[in-house]
């Protein structure tokens, strides 16, 4: 394969990822891509929401709309974290993404592809939710549980209080076909869920295939896909650990509000398409939680605890990513509304997806090289981001430069941390297969990033131009990186989740200096002391959860008290102007495997009566959420500090960590001792 | 079962019996009873090596012919009590005669205006003092082919159900043969405990196959993989037509027959809780049928028509087994109008049957019109009954009755 680098100028856009994804879609889908609707979040610059709606109307002739669900009264439009959700076609998105546009947009974040039906119904008022305007009066000690996940089997007996009585206050299936109301998916409230259960119960047993078909969770008549089809789904399992109780012991004081993300968003493990959907999910949960009040219809709003067991590998990882900011903005407590957010630390500790470039110990003029192993048979792109440290100067200094060598072919010219610096790799036919480009992520991140974007390595489509799999190298040249700063290099998450069919395969760094195993051949869960290998376990924390609000939970093996080898490690990166990383590690760690033999933790399958094992920090988070929920109900603060203190208190009941490891970066405050609600109970210390 | 050797619901794949443990009937033997009974019969049958030994043995001990004959009572003709002394495969032939000889068939070819129709009849006879019985063919099941558009539309179900293959793979392979094991996980069946029930189930399965193959052959509907190269079934597609689904026919005739035995037993557990055992048996049958769509060898409409056929045949069998001359019997018949079944509709057994009262639904109207009817009427009181089938049914029901003292 004759590969050749071309020197081109990087696009002058507000958001590089949005631009790149739209260009890829156009290249792969051809002309039809121009008519594809997308969701996106935009940030306005001295522009009101109403004014922006007018701009869209007058500029794009119906090719960009603000969905009605997003038009909320009383929002502070001057808040630096105020985002507007839009549905738009590529022509509009490109115009909104242009640097210096006169449309009042200062940043944009592309979501996922939206159906024509959803776009066409975006302006319709949501009468279903509007009509569900009752207030539920609950007793003191009630805490509302919010769940955002995929494939939620909400009819499972663990979420019912009777044969045809749900414990859910509301269920939002965000991408269910809803005919004339498709923009908002399907929203079901207690009454509707109970009515569907009554209708689909025969001889005293619920026909769950019929129930979920009627609810819109599964639809075998269409290509619509959701993991609710399977016996095992992430969402059912997670929700049961946070809020599942046996039907005969159902809890009136743990009402549930759940949002099932669009499958297209869940399956995109990169996380780049998540933001608009996550924001809608959080707002739905908050709106419904406000209707659950203690004592009387005008009583105080019951506290809300949301569990969101999702994670990514990339981004600034300093709490300033769009997702982190949305979570902080939406989940901040107010005097009237106590809110907690619980999230996992991530499972990428051993994934070899993070490297830290620092030249303090390197000889002068010595490049630091990363070997990047790009997998064959990867149907999706591979993306590596090199994040510069923050600098107060404008433009920021040209800290480093990067050149890239593909498995077969020439080395690129250097791409510098300078506006416009870019290289594009062409195959023998002159088609683009990779791109290396610099962009500045605007405030509040205010850090530069050099992104290497590599095309899929396998395809069945003529329109996709494949890149070679194998060893790519990225060589970093020091321009002016201070000795006490690092460039954080992260590979985007690129996995095919169980049940999904994206064909994604995770690339990883493969330098010889990285020690994978200990002396007896077991996976080494911590970076060897004194290692100067740029590839690190440290710094793999879930980028979604690096903001201020999330209570972040690592995973441990209950039977021996050791941290799970996959449980990601801190610290996160330093945010703008900060002297220390935003987080040193998770807030605490909790059960994510019962034992080394009995992996995972028992929780709900999708169908009533079924239990399945799943592991990962996705499991530890909802178990900790259950603890937080109970503590809030008893009047504890149950915030990050409280959880860390609980961890510290419980930790002494465990044997010491082997090997002794940088404690705070993986365990957080300490190891929580939490029961498995549906499995064997832990031995008493 | 010797007389149906190599036969199973999917005889077309008998060649890969290794993968499948082929065939409904072999499956029955496998789980249970029939092989067990054959084993007992085997005591009487002999190893060929024994014959030489018996020749020399007789020479050694029989002695000279005895002078007087022994008193031997005359046999008892046309007496069902004889059945218990017959080997199971001999009985199977008798039961098959009693059922299959009552089935008639007629086909109407497709015309430019009307679809091809297959009609199955039940023959009712009246005894006629030793002469040929007087007989009349009554309707049993009428089945017309769906349109090609309906099958085309249903392809989308094949694609979305294919997503379930990782979940259902083990079930699909285990169900290539007969699903009796799956019914036995709901109703307690075992060769030692319920030999006659298993014999009855083998009998109804043979009848189901006898009828379904004739209807499939007549309508000759094409299989999913003939409509698209992307179906790619995970098991070999049988060579017979797609509609009605043989697995649906067999699963539903089994489910309803077991449920009828449970109800007839008057055991309290089977009659409590609003018929939940019946519902669960039907769920099981539906899962077997749907798994064939997951596997990529059947359209949902095949399961709809197959379930209707199986449910209707189950009623026919139980009537033949329980009717006594002098009584008013019940005659159930049903009709599936394929041209009125909307391609966008999935299989839903609740549209055909309600378990608590063991009753078929009278009719169903979809977006394209009325696609199913069923009716149950009284018969004359002087029809011929079947003592062998009464014997089998009675023995089977007793296996479900609680032992109280």
Give a written overview of the molecule.
With 685 residues, chain A is of the alpha+beta class. Helices cover 20% and strands 24% of the residues of chain A. In chain A, strands 7, 10, 11, 14, 16, 17, 29, 30 and 31 form a 9-stranded mixed beta sheet that branches. In chain A, strand 29 (551-557) and strand 30 form a beta hairpin. In chain A, helix 8 packs parallel to helix 12 and helix 10 runs parallel beside helix 11 (322-331). The longest helix of chain A is centred in the C-terminal third of the chain and has 17 residues, at 617-633. Chain A is globular. By secondary structure, chain B is an alpha+beta fold. Chain B has 14 helices and 8 strands. Chain B has helices at 17-20, 24-31, 33-44, 49-61, 88-100, 148-161, 165-174, 180-184, 195-219, 246-265, 268-271, 276-295, 300-322, 387-398; strands at residues 103-108, 117-126, 134-144, 330-337, 353-354, 359-360, 363-366, 369-378. In chain B, the strands form 2 sheets. A 6-stranded mixed beta sheet of chain B has the order 1-2-3-4-8-7, covered by helices on one side. The longest helix of chain B has 25 residues, at 195-219. The relative contact order of chain B is 0.15. Mean pLDDT of chain B is 89; it is low at 1-43. Classes of the chains: A alpha+beta (685), B alpha+beta (405). Chain A binds chain B through residues 202-205, 207, 210, 213, 219-225, 229-232, 499, 501, and chain B through 156-157, 159-161, 163-164, 166-167, 273-276, 278-280, 283, 344, 346, 348, 350, 354-356.
């Amino acid at each position: 394969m004759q590969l050749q680098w071309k020197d081109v100028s990087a696009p002058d856009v507000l958001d590089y990822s949005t631009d790149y994804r739209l260009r890829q879609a156009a290249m792969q889908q051809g002309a039809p891509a121009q008519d594809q609707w997308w969701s996106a979040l935009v940030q306005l610059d001295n522009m009101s929401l109403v004014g922006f709606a007018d701009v869209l109307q007058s500029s794009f002739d119906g090719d960009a709309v603000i969905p009605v669900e997003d038009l909320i009264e009383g929002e502070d439009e001057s808040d630096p974290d105020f985002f507007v959700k839009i549905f738009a076609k590529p022509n509009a998105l490109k115009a909104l993404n242009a640097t210096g546009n006169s449309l009042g947009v200062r940043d944009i974040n592309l979501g996922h592809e939206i159906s024509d039906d959803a776009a066409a119904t975006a302006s319709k008022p949501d009468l279903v939710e509007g009509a569900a305007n009752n207030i539920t009066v609950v007793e003191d000690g009630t805490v509302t549980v919010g769940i955002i996940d995929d494939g939620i089997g909400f009819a499972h007996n663990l979420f019912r209080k009777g044969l045809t009585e749900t414990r859910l206050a509301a269920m939002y299936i965000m991408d269910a076909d809803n005919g004339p109301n498709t923009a908002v998916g399907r929203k079901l409230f207690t009454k509707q869920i109970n009515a569907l259960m009554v209708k689909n119960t025969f001889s005293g047993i619920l026909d769950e295939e019929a129930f979920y078909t009627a609810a819109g969770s599964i639809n075998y008549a269409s290509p619509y896909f959701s993991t609710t089809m399977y016996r095992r789904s992430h969402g059912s399992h997670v929700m049961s650990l946070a809020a599942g109780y046996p039907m005969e012991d159902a809890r009136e004081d743990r009402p549930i509000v759940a949002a099932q993300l669009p499958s297209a968003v869940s399956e995109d493990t990169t996380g780049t398409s998540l933001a608009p959907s996550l924001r809608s999910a959080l707002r739905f949960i908050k709106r419904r939680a406000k209707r659950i009040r203690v004592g009387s219809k005008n009583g105080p709003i019951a506290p809300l605890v949301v569990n969101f067991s999702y994670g990514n590998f990339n981004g600034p990882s300093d709490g300033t990513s769009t997702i982190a900011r949305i979570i902080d903005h939406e989940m901040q407590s107010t005097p009237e509304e106590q809110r907690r957010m619980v999230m996992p630390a991530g499972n990428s500790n051993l994934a070899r997806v993070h490297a830290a470039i620092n030249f303090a110990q390197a000889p002068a003029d010595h490049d630091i090289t990363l070997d990047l192993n790009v997998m064959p048979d990867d149907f999706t792109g591979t993306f590596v981001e090199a994040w510069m440290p923050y600098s107060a100067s404008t433009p920021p200094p040209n800290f480093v430069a990067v050149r890239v060598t593909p498995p077969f072919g020439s080395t690129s010219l250097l791409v510098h941390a300078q506006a416009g610096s870019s290289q594009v790799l062409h195959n023998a036919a002159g088609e683009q297969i990779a791109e290396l480009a610099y962009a500045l992520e605007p405030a509040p991140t205010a850090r530069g990033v050099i992104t290497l974007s590599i095309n899929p390595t396998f395809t069945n489509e003529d329109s996709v131009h494949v890149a070679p799999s194998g060893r790519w190298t990225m060589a970093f040249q020091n321009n002016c990186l201070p000795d006490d700063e690092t460039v954080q290099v992260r590979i985007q998450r690129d996995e095919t989740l169980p049940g999904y069919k994206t064909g994604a395969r995770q690339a990883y760094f493969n330098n010889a200096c990285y020690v994978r195993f200990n002396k007896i051949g077991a996976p080494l869960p911590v970076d060897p002391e004194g290692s100067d290998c740029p590839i690190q376990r440290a710094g793999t924390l879930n980028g979604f959860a690096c903001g201020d609000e999330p209570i972040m939970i690592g995973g441990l093996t209950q039977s021996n008290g050791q941290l799970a080898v996959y449980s990601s490690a801190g610290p996160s990166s330093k945010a703008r102007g900060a002297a220390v990383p935003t987080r040193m590690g998770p807030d605490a760690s909790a059960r994510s495997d019962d034992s080394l033999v009995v992996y995972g933790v028992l929780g709900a399958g999708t169908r009533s009566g079924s239990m399945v094992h799943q592991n990962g920090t996705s499991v530890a988070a909802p178990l900790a959420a259950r603890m937080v929920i109970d503590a809030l109900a008893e009047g504890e603060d149950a915030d990050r500090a409280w959880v860390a203190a609980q961890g510290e208190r419980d930790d002494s009941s465990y044997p010491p960590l082997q090997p002794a490891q940088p404690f705070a970066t993986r365990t957080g405050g300490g190891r929580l001792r939490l029961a498995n609600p549906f499995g064997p109970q832990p031995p008493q210390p | 079962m010797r007389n149906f050797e190599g036969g199973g619901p999917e005889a077309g794949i008998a060649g890969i019996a290794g993968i499948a443990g082929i065939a409904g009937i072999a499956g029955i033997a496998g789980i249970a009873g029939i092989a067990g009974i054959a084993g007992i019969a085997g005591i009487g049958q002999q190893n060929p090596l024994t014959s030489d030994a018996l020749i020399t043995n007789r020479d050694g001990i029989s002695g000279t012919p005895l002078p007087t004959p022994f008193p031997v009572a005359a046999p008892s003709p046309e007496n069902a009590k004889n059945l218990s002394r017959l080997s199971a495969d001999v009985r199977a032939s008798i039961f098959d005669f009693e059922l299959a000889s009552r089935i008639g068939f007629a086909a109407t070819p497709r015309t430019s205006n009307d679809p091809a129709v297959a009609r199955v009849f039940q023959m009712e006879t009246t005894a006629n003092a030793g002469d040929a019985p007087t007989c009349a063919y009554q309707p049993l099941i009428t089945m017309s082919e769906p349109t090609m558009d309906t099958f085309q539309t249903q392809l989308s179900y094949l694609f979305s159900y294919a997503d379930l293959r990782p979940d259902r793979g083990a079930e699909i392979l285990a169900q290539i043969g007969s699903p009796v094991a799956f019914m036995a996980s709901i109703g307690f069946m075992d060769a030692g405990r319920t030999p006659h029930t298993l014999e009855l189930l083998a009998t109804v399965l043979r009848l189901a196959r006898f009828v379904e193959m004739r209807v499939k052959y007549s309508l000759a509907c094409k299989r999913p993989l003939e409509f698209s190269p992307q179906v790619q079934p995970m098991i070999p597609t049988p060579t017979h037509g797609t509609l009605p689904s043989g697995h649906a026919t067999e699963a539903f005739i089994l489910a309803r027959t077991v449920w009828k035995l449970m109800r007839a037993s008057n055991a309290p557990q089977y009659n409590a809780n609003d018929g939940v055992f019946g519902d669960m048996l039907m769920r099981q049958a539906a899962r077997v049928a749907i798994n064939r769509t997951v596997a990529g060898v059947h359209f949902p409409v095949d399961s709809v028509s197959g379930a209707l056929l199986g449910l209707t045949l189950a009623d026919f069998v139980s009537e033949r087994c329980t009717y006594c001359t002098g009584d008013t019997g019940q005659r159930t018949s049903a009709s599936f109008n394929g041209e009125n079944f909307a391609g966008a509709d999935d299989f839903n057994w609740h549209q055909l049957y309600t378990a608590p009262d063991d009753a078929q639904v009278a009719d169903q109207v979809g977006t394209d019109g009325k696609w199913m009817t069923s009716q149950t009427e009284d018969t004359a009181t002087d029809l011929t009954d079947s003592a062998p089938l009464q014997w089998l049914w009675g023995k089977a029901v007793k296996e479900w009755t609680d032992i109280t003292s």
